[in-house]
Amino acid sequence: MGSIEEPIEVQLPTAAPTFAPTPSLFSLTGRTIAVTGGGRGLGITLAAAVLESGGHCACIDILPSPSELEWTSLLALAKSSNLTVSYHRCDITDETQISATLDLIAETGAKLGAPLAGTIACAGIQQKVPAVEYPVEGFRRIMDVNVTGTFLTIKHSARIFMREGTRGSVVMIASMSGQVANRGLTCTAYNTSKAAVQQMCRSVAQEWGAHGIRVNTLSPGYIRTAMTDALLAAEPEVEKTWMAGALLGRLGTPEDFKAPAIFLLADGSSWMTGADLRVDGGHCASA
Ligand SMILES: NC(=O)c1ccc[n+]([C@@H]2O[C@H](COP(=O)([O-])OP(=O)(O)OC[C@H]3O[C@@H](n4cnc5c(N)ncnc54)[C@H](O)[C@@H]3O)[C@@H](O)[C@H]2O)c1
């Protein structure tokens, strides 16, 4: 095992992979994938997608335990597929915690013969406050979790990939709100944080490409999860505004992001880095 100071030289391919059958381009067999925000919502659904694609999965979340119903079905799925799924309570804004958690996940993966080869940075928080009233602590908290926490997650993932010589893939969950301001929503801190995640992606992609590490963002439109349920419960009329931009006549579900996330993690996207994949039911396509 090399150190970060002396990275293992990665042999970058000089040509496109030849004649890989299409299903193998979406396979995560022999890999471990870490998912932050994996305790509920979008993250836990993407954890199921990892298992369904043949990968071992490690969920990381600040919650004491994951959502019971989904976790029971993840355990059953892992067992029936001869794979493992683990849950790690961790605050992604605490560098010591996230670094140790990812190291543990990588160590366990190596023992299974399935190195840590991908990370989905999905943990995030949202807050709706008019900009002129935004308390500085609230603004800083959004930046701390959505920007700094995401950065620490991908920084320590990349350190592991470099140390182990793994050509890993990082997928950061940004948002269409990184590119457009949501009509009727006073979410300046959140929107700012998601734009930062999209630019972070481009910055680290140009640093880490030489190590064979790919970094992309997946930017969802409106999805029904605990995060948006709380918002819509407080202001039900907001749903009308959202539906007005829904070109396919519905809001998103976490399941809509399974295939896009697996595509970004697996070899099918092997010539894609520093990019944003927007999946928003057409919301940003029309004014
Ligand atoms: N729901 C939407 O409409 C929507 C749209 C665009 C983007 N997103 C993004 O998708 C991601 C998942 O959102 P969701 O809708 O599933 O929300 P969610 O609130 O259900 O899930 C977010 C998860 O992140 C975890 N988390 C928060 N702070 C953490 C921390 N400090 N350390 C570790 N874990 C932490 C939470 O405990 C929670 O389990 C977020 O990044 C969100 O910004 C959501």
TrEMBL record:
Pfam (any one): adh_short_C2
Any one GO molecular-function label of the UniProt entry: oxidoreductase activity, acting on the CH-OH group of donors, NAD or NADP as acceptor
**Which PROSITE patterns does the entry mention?**
ADH_SHORT
Listed transmembrane segments: none
Write down the InterPro entries for this protein, in alphabetical order: NAD(P)-bd_dom_sf, Sc_DH/Rdtase_CS, SDR_fam
Origin superkingdom: Eukaryota
Assigned keywords, A-Z? NADP, Oxidoreductase
Which family, according to UniProt?
Answer: Belongs to the short-chain dehydrogenases/reductases (SDR) family.
Can you say what this protein is called? 2,5-dichloro-2,5-cyclohexadiene-1,4-diol dehydrogenase
Q: Which organism is it from?
A: Phialocephala subalpina
Taxonomic lineage of the native organism: Eukaryota, Fungi, Dikarya, Ascomycota, Pezizomycotina
